[in-house]
Design a protein that fits this description.
The complex is a heterodimer of chains A (130) and B (240). Chain A is α/β, with parallel strands linked by helices. Chain A is built from five helices and five strands, in the order βαβαβαβαβα. Chain A has helices at residues 13-25, 36-45, 62-72, 87-96, 108-129; strands at residues 5-9, 29-33, 50-54, 77-82, 100-103. A five-stranded parallel beta sheet of chain A has the order 2-1-3-4-5, with helices on both faces. Chain B has 240 residues and is α+β, with helices and mostly antiparallel strands. In chain B, a hairpin with a 5-residue loop joins strand 2 and strand 3. The chains are: A alpha/beta (130), B alpha+beta (240). Chains A and B meet through helix 1 of A and helix 7 and helix 8 of B.
Chain lengths: 130, 240
């Protein structure tokens, strides 16, 4: 949990580029995936603690991806970033384990605040377990 | 009526007596009245009395509009059938056409304004027949105001569902590029010096993108189907 690594998943390369630049400037290490399947493969090799997931992904969607990751790695803090969400979808997000959700377009400051909040929480949990 | 004509009608129509017909129509679950050649009510079943909220004395022998309580029956001194609104009255024309053409009319939907019930949507059917030797028209009246309201509500619901789906699709497609433009504008703003001219230009771009973002957020929170005038047409009011 020491390194501030973030995994971002979105099927649009421009948005992945944006995440990479925005988080890197604040000192985070960013890994990007374009599909849920690719994200799961990355997770098998390396653990990430903070995730930003698009909900509308080709193949497995972001909600299902979150559900699978949270089941396997319950300490992970995932955020949903979506182009559109109805009340029912948002309820489903909460049930799937998302910490919070953002509707695009999201301000850089909101993304950074969410990441800071997540890493502070992880730090607190780490101290409790020490 | 000439004897030849009467014979022809008698041969092609079923013949009823008032007593026999009343027994049949009283058992039916809709309002039924028999209209004679003077357009007056000759017979009415129980539900017709209930529908008009009148007794036998107030209904039998009275001309259509007066009998049913149409708000226009006193528009002119001559009464029902002579006023300007009577020319547009679909109940009157349907009964007259049935009488003249000797052909039934099925499920004609009309709208009438009544003294007691206000505006009602009705579905009427007519049948030419012989009653005690006279040419008459059997008129059945079904009040479909509630059905119409339900249909209207269902249509509004359908419209709303289409609005939500369209709004969702538009928002999803637009928010992706908006996020990219807005995000990179923010990054560029961080890079540009405070006194840079480009900084002001970029701020303007960012401002307009944020404005678009607010529009898509409004679209996503639409909860009512409301329109507003736009030039010569109407468009969806996204401000609710």
């Amino acid at each position: 949990m020491g390194e501030k690594q973030i995994l971002v998943v979105d099927d649009e390369q421009s948005i992945l580029n944006l995440y990479s630049q925005a988080f890197s400037r604040e000192g985070y290490i960013v890994r990007a995936a374009k599909t849920a399947e690719e994200a799961l493969e990355i997770f098998e090799q390396e653990q990430y603690w903070v995730l930003f997931l698009d909900l509308n992904l080709p193949g497995m969607n972001g909600v299902e991806l979150c559900r699978q990751i949270c089941k396997e790695w319950p300490m992970v803090i995932p955020y949903a970033v979506t182009g559109y969400a109805s009340v029912f979808e948002l309820a489903e997000c909460r049930e799937a384990g998302f910490e919070d959700y953002f509707i695009k377009p999201v301000k850089k400051s909101d993304l950074i605040s969410a990441a800071e909040h997540a890493f502070k929480k992880l730090e607190k949990w780490k101290k409790i377990n020490e | 009526m000439t004897e030849d004509k009467t014979d022809k009608i008698l041969k092609s129509s079923k013949i009823y007596t008032k007593e026999g017909l009343l027994e049949v129509i009283d058992a039916l679950p809709i309002a039924i009245a028999v209209i004679d050649s003077n357009r007056a009510v000759a017979l009415a079943n129980k539900l017709a009395y209930l529908f008009t909220n009148k007794n036998q004395e107030q209904l039998i022998g009275k001309v259509g509009g007066e009998a049913f309580g149409c708000i226009h029956h006193e528009d002119v001194p001559e009464g029902c059938g002579f006023g300007p609104e009577c020319l547009r009255c679909k109940l009157r024309t349907t009964v007259l056409e049935t009488m003249e053409q000797k052909k039934p009319q099925h499920m004609v939907e009309i709208s009438m304004v009544f003294e007691n019930h206000g505006e009602r949507d009705l579905r009427i059917s007519t049948l030419p027949m012989i009653l005690d030797g006279d040419e008459v028209v059997l008129l059945s009246i079904e009040d479909i105001t509630e059905v119409k309201k339900y249909e209207q509500a269902a249509m509004e619901k359908e419209k709303l569902s289409v609005v939500f789906q369209t709004a969702g699709a538009v928002c999803h497609e637009m928010n992706q590029p908006l996020m990219v433009i807005s995000g990179f504008s923010e990054l560029l703003l961080e890079d540009l010096p405070e006194d840079s001219v480009q900084r002001d230009n970029l701020k303007e771009i960012k401002k307009q993108v944020d404005r678009l973002g607010l529009i898509t957020k409004k679209l996503m929170t639409i909860s009512k189907y409301k329109t507003r005038p736009y030039l010569n047409q109407r468009i969806l009011n996204i401000d609710g």
